[in-house]
Write a structure and sequence with these properties.
This protein has a four-stranded antiparallel sheet, covered by helices on one side. Helix content is 37%, strand content 33%. It is of the alpha+beta class.
Length: 103
C-alpha cells in the first residue's frame, strides 16, 4: 500500500519540534489526503485527513476540491510552514494528479 503513497509537501512544525508531510494515497474508492506531524518517542503525532471519494463533487470540480480540502490546506500553512502561494501550488498539483490517475 505504501507504494501508492505520493508525498506532495514536507515541512517542519515549530510547535511540535519535528517534521511532517502531506501525502496522497489511493484507497479503495477514494484518494486519501493526509497531512500530519510524525510521532516521536512517547509524543503522539497529529494531523488532518480528507478522502476524495470517487463520484463526489470534490472529485469532479476543482472549485469543490479546493473548498472541501480547506482544513488540510490550513494545516500545512499553520503547522508545516507552507505559504499561501506554495499551498495553492501543492493543491493544484494534487488536483492534477488525481485527475490524471482517474482517467
Amino acid at each position: 500500500m505504501e507504494a501508492n503513497k505520493r508525498v506532495f509537501f514536507t515541512g517542519y512544525s515549530q510547535l511540535a519540534g519535528r517534521p511532517g508531510d502531506l501525502y496522497v494515497m489511493r484507497k479503495s474508492n477514494c484518494w486519501h489526503i493526509n497531512a500530519g506531524v510524525y510521532s516521536c518517542g512517547h509524543n503522539p503525532g497529529f494531523g488532518v485527513v480528507f478522502d476524495v471519494v470517487d463520484g463526489t463533487p470534490e472529485c469532479d470540480s476543482c472549485e469543490e476540491f479546493f473548498k472541501q480540502t480547506a482544513s488540510v490546506q490550513q494545516f500545512i500553512i499553520n503547522e508545516l510552514g507552507a505559504t499561501q502561494q506554495s499551498c495553492n501550488r501543492v493543491f493544484e498539483e494534487i488536483w492534477d494528479y488525481i485527475q490524471q490517475k482517474n482517467v
